[in-house]
Design brief:
Keywords: Cell membrane, Decarboxylase, Lipid biosynthesis, Lipid metabolism, Lyase, Membrane, Phospholipid biosynthesis, Phospholipid metabolism, Pyruvate, Zymogen. Catalyzes the formation of phosphatidylethanolamine (PtdEtn) from phosphatidylserine (PtdSer). It catalyses: a 1,2-diacyl-sn-glycero-3-phospho-L-serine + H(+) = a 1,2-diacyl-sn-glycero-3-phosphoethanolamine + CO2. The protein is an alpha+beta fold and about 280 residues long. It folds into two domains: about 1-65, no CATH class; about 80-280, no CATH class. The chain is about 20% helix and about 30% strand. It has helices spanning about 1-15, 15-30, 35-45, 60-65, 110-115, 165-170, 175, 210-215; strands at about 80-85, 90-95, 100-105, 110, 130-135, 140-145, 150-155, 180-185, 190-195, 225, 240, 250-255, 260, 270, 275-280. The strands form four sheets. It has an eight-stranded antiparallel β-sheet, with no helix packed on it. A three-stranded antiparallel β-sheet has the order 1-15-13, with no helix packed on it. A two-stranded antiparallel ribbon has the order 3-4. The longest helix has 13 residues, at about 1-15.
């Protein structure tokens, strides 16, 4: 099995991922892509019951991917002591950070510092993390898991391996190799690290809470950081960005501050606003 996944990783490395992603992105945003919408809905069994627009009103596949939902269709757990899901998707992995490492997929553990761009905050040792995967059929907007004040936003360039189960098991250190944003917030659970990971076809992550100039000047070749502590606090459940097509979010919290729901396990479906865990008082 290990050799099989090593072969998969080698084959994925040969694909011109960024060129194909750019080409796909142009197609997905073009009006001609709307002709593919009926096929796409059938292919991925999209449930558009909660969407604001009916299928025929989307002008492109990109608009369908980034669709908005009707108000009230994703109720947010109102408790000040819960952490809610930032996305619709499935639990890819969940656990506690040991010796500065976390698990990407079964048998694939590597340093959290690699994921965060080279720095491992001491307070994350024995902290908690959860990885959520969004499929092409999912609602693709990202919402804040709990009320928080933005502290820092970092854009880390990289490649664009697919982040589905095949990619997660076949490419070592996948999340640390793909293009991503690392955003930190001050919350009732201490500092929260929210990592939005780009993917094959997705290409970029749009963080709508950030000023437009940051979005425009992020360089794909050079890591960049912006201090954003001057920005106002964002409410629990508020939208902060979106993916196109499908991707992955990783949430990390300081040690002793968040306890995940005991029933959470790999493969569990989650929805925006659903409680994932409980905030614990610092000792």
């Amino acid at each position: 099995m290990e050799s099989r996944f090593s072969l998969i990783g080698a084959l994925l490395a040969l694909i011109p991922k960024r060129s194909l992603t750019r080409a796909a992105g142009r197609l997905l945003e073009h009006r001609v892509s709307r002709l593919l919408i009926p096929w796409y809905i059938r292919r991925y069994s999209l449930d558009l019951t909660d969407a604001i627009l009916p299928p025929g009103d989307y002008r492109s596949l990109f608009e369908l991917f980034t669709r908005r939902l009707q108000p009230g269709t994703r109720p947010v757990d109102p408790s000040d002591t819960t952490v809610t899901s930032p996305v619709d998707g499935v639990v890819e992995a969940v656990g506690v950070i040991h010796d500065g490492t976390f698990i990407q997929a079964k048998g694939h553990a590597y340093p959290v510092a690699d994921l965060l761009g080279g720095h491992f905050p001491d307070e994350l040792e024995e902290g908690t993390w959860i990885t959520l995967y969004l499929s092409p059929a999912d609602y693709h907007r990202i919402h804040l898991p709990l009320r928080g004040k933005p502290l820092q936003a970092a854009h880390i360039p990289g490649t664009l391996f697919p982040v589905n189960r095949l990619g997660a098991r076949g490419v070592r250190r996948l999340f640390a190799r793909n293009e991503r944003w690392v955003t930190t917030f001050s919350t009732a659970a201490g500092t929260m690290y929210l990592v939005e990971i780009g993917s094959f076809i997705v290409g970029s992550v749009r963080l709508t809470y950030l000023p437009e100039e940051i979005q425009r000047t992020s360089d794909r070749k050079v890591p960049q950081k912006w201090e954003v502590s001057h920005m106002p606090t964002i409410g629990k459940g508020e939208e902060i960005g979106y993916f196109a097509f499908g991707s992955t979010v990783v949430l990390l919290f300081e040690r002793g501050r968040v306890e995940w729901q005991s029933h959470l396990k790999t493969g569990d479906p989650v929805r925006v606003g659903q409680s994932l865990g409980f905030i614990r008082e610092p000792r």
